[in-house]
Structures are given as C-alpha cells and as structure tokens.
Amino acid sequence: MRERVLPVAGAGELLIEVKACGVCRTDLHVVDGELAHPKLPIVPGHEVVGRVAAIGAGVGGFSLGERVGVPWLGATCGSCPYCREGAENLCDAPVFTGYTRDGGYATHTVADARYCFALGEHGDDAEIAPWLCAGLIGWRSYRMAGEGKTLGLYGFGAAAHILAQVASWQGRRVFAFTRRGDIAAQDFARSLGAVWAGASEDTPPEPLDAAIIFAPVGALVPAALKAVKKGGRVVCGGIHMSDIPSFPYALLWEERHVMSVANLTRADAREFLEIAPKAGVTCEVTRYPLARANEALSDLRDGRLQGAAVLIL
Ligand SMILES: [Zn+2]
Ligand SMILES: [Zn+2]
Q1: Cα separation of 235 and 46, whole Å?
Q2: Going by C-beta distance under 8 Å and a sequence separation of 6 or more, which residues neighbour residue 36?
Q3: In the predicted model, what is the mean pLDDT of residues 219-234?
Q4: pLDDT tens for each residue of 68-90
C-alpha cells in the first residue's frame, strides 16, 4: 500500500472515487510481466465501479456523485484505420486501464470520460464490477461465437459464469469445461444453467456449435476443436495464452474456425450493459479489502474462488 497525491481530472477526464474493482486474470498477466510495455509503476485494475468526484474541463453528460464504470479500454486514437472503421478495439494507439494508465486498485482513479459508462443505481457495486471486463469482453467473445444453440465454455471463471447466465436466458445450452476433478466449479456451472459440466479433455455428450476458451491454456485450442461440429467456432477470449500445441489439420478441416477476441468497443459495452439486467445476470463475488489485493490475485491464480474476486473500498 502506498500513499499518493490525489490525482487531478484533466480536460476530458473524470476523477472517480473507487467503490469496487474486480480482479481479472489480465491483472495477473500484468503483474507477472507477461504483457509487453506496461506503464511502470502501474496501478492495476480495469473493472472499476466508483462515484464521480470531480469533472474535468469539457466533460458533459456526467454529474458529481454519479455511479460510473471504467473498463479495460481506456482510450483510443480515433484516427487510425481501425478506429475509423468502427473497430476501436483494434486501435493502433490505445490506452488500457490498469495496464498503460493507472486503474482501480486504489481509492481514486482518473479516466477519460468518453470511455466511462453511467451505471445507474441498480445493483451492488461489487457485484457489478465484474461486468466491466468479464462481462464486456465476455460478451464480445459470445457474439463472436455466433448464434449456435450449443456453446462450450472452457475455464469456468468470472466471464464464463456471467455468459452461462446470458446463454441460458437466451435458450442456448451451455457445456462447461473445467480442470479435471474440479467438482466445485462443475457444480457451480450447473447451478448457473449449464446442462453438462466436465473436464476440459472430456468429449461433451453432443458436438458443439461453438466454444469459448477463457483459461490461458493453449492445449485447450485443439481440445475445443475436437468438441465443435463442422463449421464450428473456437473463440479465444483471453489476452494471453500458453503456446498452442501442434495438431492434425483434420481438427480444423470442415470449416472450423479459430479466432481471438481483443479488447472491447464501446458499442460492446453499451449492448452488454443493456442486456445484463434483462438477463438477470448476478455475479458471485468474493470480496477483499483493497489492502488484501495480493491475496485476491493469489486466490485467482490458484483457482481458490468461484465466480469473481472483487476489491472493495
Ligand atoms: Zn485508433
Ligand atoms: Zn479483464
């Protein structure tokens, strides 16, 4: 823990008093040095729920005390070819909360107001925090997985536990894949609507239309390709993954797809923030005071918690 001077909201920015900040697997990749070129020192955290404490010059649409969320996408350039084509998630000069600018493992944070979202007053701060990344990037992954009725989720953590609820609400059938022998995670998945839960190496009882991989384990790519039907999609939802082992072309043949999801767009966020309350998404959270952030990271790393870890202020 370190005392710092209170940051100041510059032009276009909000100063936010943090109320809750979710702990994402990407935070582990940041603190473990697995992502290139972080701002150092860095305050991690990109699932920020807080209250507007000061409003910088030129900012409209927010009021003091309003509850807002700050996601992973901290800012984009607005002028590169990707930004101009509506793919700001692929911006050539992006800013990422808790990676290239300070995030929410703090009492206060400053964010670019254009990338903050009003969250309204419905719902508990800690239970909404995981929406800001597990929900938003999970939603983008879910959209990339297509419209199929059978969906596999590999790695049943924060994102999968949100998507299982959305998918069940939409009438899709969810198949949850966990570490072998993780009975607690498999029971948890079934409690959230999964029709089947088993080990990642298992063959599901029927072929899948699509699978989303949230665990950072490259060996799951060929495993998921085995589980999807002809034309099926395998979406890699994480920012970092161990190397993918070589596999026979036959696993990819018949128009199976492997794709990755990078970041989010503000349009993804608006869609998810509208659909999540309708779907009745509730997050199972384990709360930690800010001073125990390292313990939260360790518990996430070792798979000692169900759902999402959230720091509370
Ligand atoms: Zn750009
Ligand atoms: Zn994240």
Answers
A1: 22
A2: none
A3: 98
A4: 999 999 999 999 999 999 999 99
Which DSSP state fits 244? P
> SS3 of 302, please?
coil
Give the pair of three-digit tokens for residue 226.
Answer: 């085995």
Dihedral class, residue 209 (left if φ above 0, else alpha if ψ from -120 to 50, else beta): alpha
Q: For residues 139 and 263, is the Cβ–Cβ distance under 8 A?
A: no
Distance from Cα 22 to the centre of ligand 1, integer Å: 26
Instruction: Please give all residues whose CB falls under 5 A of ion ligand 1, grouped by chain where several chains appear.
Output: 76-77, 80, 83, 91
Sign of CA dihedral 115, 50, 302, 272: negative
C-alpha of residue 87 to centroid of ligand 1, in Å: 8
Residue 36 has a pLDDT of 93
Question: 99, 109, 100: which is closest to 15 by C-alpha?
Answer: 109
First to last CA, the chain: 13
Tens digits of residue pLDDT in 127-166: 999 999 999 999 999 999 999 999 999 999 999 999 999 9
Tell me the β-bridge partners of 257.
233
- The amino acid sitting at 122 is H
Whether 145 contacts 166, CB under 8 Å: no
Task: Check if the beta carbon of residue 218 is closer than 8 Å to that of residue 244.
Answer: yes
What whole-number distance in Å separates Cα of residue 240 and Cα of residue 242?
A: 7
Does this model's pTM top 0.90? yes
* 22 alpha-carbon distance from chain centroid: 10
**Ligand 2 centroid from CA 6, angstroms:** 25
Residue 240 CA to ligand 1 centre (angstroms)? 21
